[in-house]
Design a protein that fits this description.
three-stranded antiparallel sheet, 9 helices, six-stranded mixed sheet, alpha/beta, globular
């Protein structure tokens, strides 16, 4: 008598499920018929030149942008849902963007920046901070190695230091996925090295990473998949090995380029 067949593993749920998504802002078609599926727990880079539509794609994921009507069926889901409230999303996705850093221009301390994440505010104002929130904030600062900066004003920090506090703010609800939109802009070499090590630590801790960038050297070894975006469209989607080639990167950025791989990192040279 033969053994019964082994049960099939259930499919991994989708974090993002887009089909035929077009977004128009003013007279510009910032996303053009985009179809994209991202599984929960997947580490992924969204790569493309400036103005390609990468940030627009992030804003579609976070529901800052909505698709227009289409002749084709449109799917527009995050975490299996078409609608949700902001606080239910925070346990699923944390977001760090340059737009967010630009809003923190006042003399708010690093500790207050992280605590403000519990209230989705810029500063604390009249919010009541609980002991549990304080404990979580201390835990995050230890994890990101920024305890010594807790009482320094954000606008007195370096860009790299401030960026780590914004990551801490995004982690207060322990999101399953962290989205980082062009996170290494304005970082010098030392800050870039530290920041990349922090991203690796986050990925290794079990939080998945969606990294939006125009720099190959931002793509940490833990990222396995690369989605290429140009002119509001997805023009490539596959493993790092498939996507990060001389030909594919040359087409994406419209320059002749040589891609070098070293210890799991990728670098572009020769342009």
């Amino acid at each position: 008598m033969s053994a019964p067949p082994a049960p099939e593993n259930p499919p991994t749920p989708l974090l993002v499920e887009f089909a035929n998504v077009t977004v128009i802002k003013g007279e510009d078609r910032v996303l053009d018929n985009v179809s994209l599926a991202i599984k929960e727990g997947e580490n992924i880079a969204i790569l493309g030149p400036n103005g390609a539509g990468k940030s627009s794609l992030v804003k579609a994921i976070t529901r800052e942008y909505y698709p227009v009507a289409s002749d084709h069926p449109v799917t527009f889901k995050v975490h299996g849902e078409e609608t949700w409230d902001v606080f239910s999303l925070k346990s699923t996705i944390g977001i760090v963007s340059n737009d967010l850093q630009y809003t923190f221009t006042r003399t708010i301390t690093g500790r207050e920046v992280i605590l403000s994440g519990f209230f989705s505010s810029i500063g604390l104002f009249n919010h009541v901070v609980t002991p549990d929130m304080e404990r979580k904030t201390e835990e995050i600062m230890r994890f990101l190695s920024i305890e010594r900066l807790a009482d320094r004003a954000l606008n007195a920090m370096s860009s790299g230091e401030a960026r780590r506090f914004l990551i801490g703010r995004a982690l207060v609800f322990s999101p399953a996925t962290l989205i980082l939109d062009e996170p290494t802009n304005s970082l010098d070499l030392e800050a870039l090295h530290t920041f990349r090590e922090i991203l690796r630590k986050i990925a290794q801790s079990g939080t998945s990473i969606i990294l939006v960038t125009h720099n190959l050297h931002d793509i940490i070894p833990e990222i396995a998949r690369v989605v290429m975006v140009k002119n509001g469209r997805i023009c490539g989607d596959g493993t790092k090995e498939e996507m990060l080639t001389d030909a594919a990167i040359g087409r994406l950025f419209s320059v002749p380029v040589h891609v070098v791989r070293e210890n799991g990192w990728y670098y572009a040279t020769g342009y």
